[in-house]
User: Which sequence fits this backbone?
DNA sequence: AATACGGGGAC
DNA sequence: GTCCCAGTATT
């Protein structure tokens, strides 16, 4: 019953939202921008990322790659280096793929329909609606974490937002509420409202223009909405990195396997089911036999333990440093030998970055 | 329908 | 510690 559509309520919602927006300016570098390239770039950076975290990345990308052609022409490693620390690195891969598609196959011109935009790599329903509405004034409602929260609370929608039913339901509500006279302005407004007013924790209900008709406020369930069904289990992994040195050079490895941190660099890795490992176990590993073999190290040092939590994994890593008396014989493009000073041009996972800072 | 995929900030 | 963030791709 509470999920029923009420045109009167909907009208109030949109009217109050737009009033609120005028009274609560929130300047952003991409607001008012009409260049679909810059809008797209900002939206990819902001996927599952707080505005405060993404902003400096957007400015650096815009400065270095002002056009889609300049981005398309960039070496992969440079893009990943610029993306370093932002997480969800498949976004960087898809960013490049889409830039090269637009520059190479479309003469640099962005698709101008929702379907055309959404068909490109790294662009789902949210990003397609954002680009379509901000760049081309197309009437597509954005549905992001803010929209889930605002609609769930104001209209008392209790369907879990991470369910198939929930995704469909919230998209339908969002689309019906959209102000088709100004889709871009409305989309910006509802996301700003979610970020500033209808916050996840301690929302400002006392000063909220929706207070009188907000279902969650009426029923005292503001803190229970939106409903999320799934909770995730984290896998624990123990990494023992081989930091192999010869005359000031280090052996790096590019991560290419179907695993975390694809396209980033780290070191040869021995993964273990156990937290601790001794030298004999390390020397029995395939990685050791391949990369060190009979080249017996002169001395070694084992680092402290570093820990990093990812979305679905918890990593515990140690770095074993070895000085080798003889140079490597490498026939594998997976590995790179680099001077210690040149490491700054490679993109590393945070846990490797932390270690390198202490090295 | 579930799961994988980062990192940071707020509490 | 937990939760969430201008989500998407894959299985």
Assistant:
């Amino acid at each position: 019953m509470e999920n029923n559509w009420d045109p009167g309520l909907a009208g109030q919602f949109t009217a109050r939202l737009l009033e609120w927006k005028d009274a609560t300016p929130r300047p952003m570098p991409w607001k008012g921008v009409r260049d679909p390239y810059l809008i797209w770039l900002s939206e990819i950076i902001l996927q599952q990322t707080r505005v405060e975290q993404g902003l400096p990345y957007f400015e650096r990308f815009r400065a270095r790659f002002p056009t889609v052609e300049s981005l398309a022409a960039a070496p992969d490693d440079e893009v990943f280096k610029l993306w370093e620390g932002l997480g969800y690195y498949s976004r960087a891969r898809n960013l490049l793929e889409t830039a090269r598609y637009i520059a190479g196959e479309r003469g640099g011109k962005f698709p101008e329909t929702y379907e055309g935009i959404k068909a490109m790599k790294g662009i789902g329903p949210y990003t397609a609606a954002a680009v379509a509405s901000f760049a081309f004034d197309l009437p597509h409602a954005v549905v992001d974490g803010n929209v889930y929260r605002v609609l769930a609370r104001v209209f008392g929608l209790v369907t879990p937002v991470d369910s198939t039913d929930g995704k469909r339901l919230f998209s339908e509500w969002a689309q019906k509420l959209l102000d088709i006279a100004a889709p871009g302005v409305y989309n910006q407004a509802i996301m700003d409202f979610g970020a500033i007013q209808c916050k996840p924790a301690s929302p400002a209900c006392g000063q909220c223009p929706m207070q009188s008709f907000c279902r969650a406020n009426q029923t005292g369930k503001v803190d229970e909405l939106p409903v999320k069904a799934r909770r995730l289990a984290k896998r624990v992994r123990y990494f023992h990195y081989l930091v192999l040195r010869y005359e000031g050079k280090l052996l790096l490895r590019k991560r290419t396997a179907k695993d975390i941190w694809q396209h980033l660099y780290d070191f040869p890795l021995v993964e273990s089911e156990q937290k601790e490992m001794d030298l004999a176990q390390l020397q029995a590993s395939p990685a050791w036999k391949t990369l060190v073999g009979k080249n017996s190290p002169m001395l070694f040092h084992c680092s402290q333990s570093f820990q990093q939590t990812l979305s679905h994994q918890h990593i515990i890593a140690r770095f074993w440093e070895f000085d080798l008396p003889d140079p490597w014989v490498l026939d594998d493009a997976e590995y790179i030998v680099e001077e210690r000073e040149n490491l700054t041009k490679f993109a590393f996972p945070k846990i490797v970055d932390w270690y390198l800072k202490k090295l």
Observations:
- Chain A is about 40% helix and 15% strand.
- The beta strands of chain A are 235-246, 249-254, 265-266, 269-272, 299-302, 306-309, 313-323, 335-339.
